[in-house]
Known about the structure:
By secondary structure, the chain is mainly alpha-helical. It is built from 7 helices and no strands. α2 (39-45) packs across α3 and α4 crosses α6 (99-109). It starts with a helix and ends in a 13-residue tail after the last helix.
Amino acid sequence: MPKDGRQVARDSRDAERIADRLLDARRTLERDYALPLTVQRLARHARLPHLSFNRAYHDAFGIAPLDHLRLLRLQAAARLLVDGRAAADIAVRVGYPNVAVFKAEFRRLFRDDAQLRAQLDLALQHTGNPPASQRAGA
């Protein structure tokens, strides 16, 4: 059955409200990436069910919210590496309480950037971890 004009207008307003909530969620990610954010919390903030939020966010921005959060954190970490900070300090500052998870995700994202990997190795020396070039299998 075709929709009448009122239903189309209501659907349009609903879509607009969801788009506004998704933009708000994206701004929250970009502003608060270092905080202990979860997709569930962002979905609640956007007043959408978790799976609907994931799908709508990905459809709107071309990236899943968790992947976007990870990307924002690792890009911030790359900027801090240039300042010569220790890896443990960087991990905590960008929202990774676990340094091992931070290192693994950083290496995966920047696997083709030798300069950033070298800077990470230097930062790891400040945390007592041997650089990748000194570990077996690296």
